[in-house]
Amino acid sequence: MPPAIEIENLSKTYRSLFGLRKVTAVDDLTLHVEEGEVFGFLGPNGAGKTTTIKILLGILYPTSGKCKLFGETFTSNSAFAPETANSKLKANIGYLPEGPYFHEFLTGKEVLAFYGKLYGIRGGNLKKRISDVLELVGMEYAADRLVQHYSKGMRQRIGLAQALLSDPKLLILDEPTVGLDPIARREIRDLMLRLRGLGKTLFVCSHELSEVEMVCDKVGIINRGKLIKYGRLLDLVLKDRAVEIEVSLLSEETQKKLEAMKCRVERSETGLTSVWLPERQEIYDVLEILRSSSTEIVEMKPKKESLEDLFIRTVKEEVA
Questions:
Q1: Signal peptide: which range, if any (predicted)?
Q2: Please, which pLDDT band fits residue 124 given cuts at 50, 70 and 90?
């Protein structure tokens, strides 16, 4: 099966005011998202995330490069090439923008009826789809309330219901949990996992890195239009894993030997000392030094980098 999203050497360049200089928003971007994956598309503000999403949706024209959705190509100086600009392809994409806005004088059910008709769904099929998506996002109880009485979390869920109306295979979610309280974030996160279980592909753009870490299979970090980190989440956060050894009775002489081996030593007021060493370091050599110096080993455990740590370190290294 072809990837759900296949981006090859994608670039988008804007001209500044009066056309005096060019501004590159996306620079030679290449990435793949397989069907059924949850992909986290991360980056600081102005990195090129929104531009990439708009190109995927056919709203913006790429300057160069190729994009494929489920094997269908749209490429070079046009959004959807004429031969692929069909309703079937577009119906396979659901989109939740950041901070979705709906007419406040409509009920949730009326909002979905409006968007369903835009999708070309009519009659009994539309009623069934509305009922199905309301149940999926847990909004049946509020279907007949006016949107103006919805909380922010309820608006996000009705936005997801709107994105799911055509039963798309791909969902593009822009900041799905921004500004939500912990309960609402948990509800949206559980819903994303449920959608993955139904075989949907999710392309998630978010600054809530702890949320991304809980749901994503693969991530890509973009900065200044360039992809600077890309791969399976577990592989990335475990790549630079460290080992922490908690000890007591560590002498200054032994500490100097450990630091000479590029170990980091942190003493605490409790009398216990943490010895950090990279996983690639020969752990048995460190243990031999501790044993020969009669240092007591209290605990030894692996420590992996969080997605937030990985993100900050990667962006800072790229800027430097």
A1: none
A2: very high
Residues 236 and 298 in one domain: no
Residues 6+ apart with CB under 8 A from 69: 4, 5, 6, 56, 89, 92, 93, 170
Indicate the number of domains in the chain.
2
Contact 106, 162 (CB under 8 A): no
Percent of the chain whose predicted confidence (pLDDT) is above 70: 91
**Domain annotation covers residue 223:** yes
**Alpha carbon of residue 186 to chain centroid:** 15
Structural domain range at position 280: 242-303
Q: Between 266 and 3, where is the model more confident?
A: 3
- 264 in the same domain as 210: no
Alpha helices, DSSP H only, in 165-208? 182-197
CATH number of the domain encompassing residue 25: 3.40.50.300
Q: What is the pTM of this model?
A: 0.81
